[in-house]
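Q: Hi! First time doing this. I have a protein sequence and I read that you can turn it into a structure. Is that right? Here it is:
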Amino acid sequence: MTATVQPTLDGTVPTQSADYETWLAVVWPHFIAAAASGRTFTCYSIADTNRLPDPPNPQAHWGRLMHQLRDEGYIRPAGWACSDRPTTRHSGVRTWKGTAAARREAAA
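A: Yes, that's right. Below is the predicted 3D structure, encoded as structure tokens:
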């Protein structure tokens, strides 16, 4: 059984990485930069702004990424907001903020 990929609102079909580690190498620097910026963000806002590809398992891997960033000390929970993702009908999502470790990483 093959999964179908839903086109974005502009009609393009998002690319999808073959494995988690390959995908992580592509998206990680964008999230580290967001964390180092000091501003509050959502996972989707960074993915959308940078037109990042979907992971092999979007339902699980976006959350896994955010937990990895948190567990490694780059981000911390900042609160909640309404999602900007068009398909969520403005449901609540976690917001994140970078830590001092993220700012040091960017300065190095």
